[in-house]
Amino acid sequence: MYDLQNRPMSERYEHLLKAISSERFLKMQGLGNEVPFFICPFDPREYDEMEANIATLSNALNNRGVRVLSINLYDLSIELLKNRGRWEQILEDERDYSKEQLKEFLQSVLDPENHVVPAISEKMAADNFDVMFISGVGEVFPYIRSHTVLNNLHSTAKDKPTVMFFPGEYTQSLAEGASLDLFGKLQDDKYYRAFNIYLYQI
Predict the structure, then answer these.
(1) Is the dihedral of CA 43, 134, 20, 197 positive or negative?
(2) C-alpha dihedral over 193, 22, 26, 58, to 10 degrees?
(3) How do residues 162-187 score in pLDDT, each as one tens digit?
(4) What is the C-alpha to C-alpha distance for residues 173 and 187, in angstroms, rounded to an integer?
(5) Are the C-beta atoms of 26 and 130 separated by less than 8 Å?
């Protein structure tokens, strides 16, 4: 089981399908009163394959009666920018921004606490779902950090399980705690309250 995340994608897919469709997972049993957040790490080189797998997994779960709310952070960011009238402005002025200026601008208008998580909460309230998928983590780095999204979702997404598909490594150890290492190289700060879904016992 500990080796599962290094197994072929087909084996990981079967585990995800069995785990997420299980009554134990959906009823959030065995979590020790922790928030029902799960990280699904994958090699960034598998991005296209994983994106296809997420869509296939969602369809397969829906066919089993498990309703999936799928949130892509990149798509959500564009939606928020368009809703706030900033999208065209960015496209027009991008050449005039330095990378640091653009990062600061996007971090401001896409602040997780004030904008991103409230938008996710709206989608949750409007959808009758059993599990939420969060993807698009790599595309929104560095202006949206995955651990910040998860921290701000604690109070909102505690009643249904959430699976974040993470292009990198989620490492946990007694000595160093847990960290999300984006692309296997960039430490996305400490985050310890999620479970590695590949370690989830079915």
Answers:
(1) positive
(2) 90
(3) 999 999 888 765 445 566 777 666 55
(4) 15
(5) yes
pTM, to two decimals: 0.89
16-53 per-position pLDDT tens digit? 999 999 999 999 998 888 899 999 999 999 999 999 99
Q: For residue 198, which amino acid is it?
A: Y
Chain length of the chain: 202
Contacts of 156 (CB under 8 A, 6+ apart): 117, 120, 121, 124
Distance CA 87, CA 99 (A): 17
Q: Which two tokens stand for residue 87?
A: 């999208």
Q: How far apart are CA 180 and CA 93, in angstroms?
A: 33
Residue 18 is encoded by which pair of tokens?
């069995």
With 0-12 CB in 10 A as exposed, 13-18 as middle and 19+ as buried, what is 177?
Answer: exposed
